[in-house]
Amino acid sequence: MAEDKPWVLISEVGDEGFHEDVVDILKQHFHLICLKEFLKNPVLHGPKIQAMLMWNYRPAAEPSLLSCLPSLKVVANGGVGIDHLDVPYINSLGVKVANTPGVVSDATADMAMALLLASARMVVEGHLISVDSKTTHVPQSLMGVEVTGSTLGIIGMGHIGYKVAQRSKGFNMRILYHNRNRRSVEDEQAVGASYCEKLDDLLNESDFVVLVVNLTPETTGLISHRELSLMKPTATLINVSRGLVVDQDALVKALKSGTIRAAALDVTHPEPLPRDHPLLSLPNVLITPHTGTNTHATIRKMMHLMSTMFISSQSSPAAFKGFTLVMPAVAVGNVGQLAVDLLVSTLNMSRAGYFHTDCLIPMAGNNPYASCKEDAEELHTPAEVYTAAELKLAVLQIRAPIIQTRSKKFRQQLVSWIKASGFSRTVVLSSSHSYQRDDQQLQGTPLRYLITPSLLTASADALKELGWREMERIPAFPGVKDANPEPRLCIPGGGITKGLFTDSCDEDLPLAVLLLFCSEGDNIPDAFALVNHLNNWLHLLDSQSQEPNSKWKVPTSWSLLFGSGIPPALF
Question: What's a single GO CC term here (predicted)?
Answer without folding.
Answer: nucleus
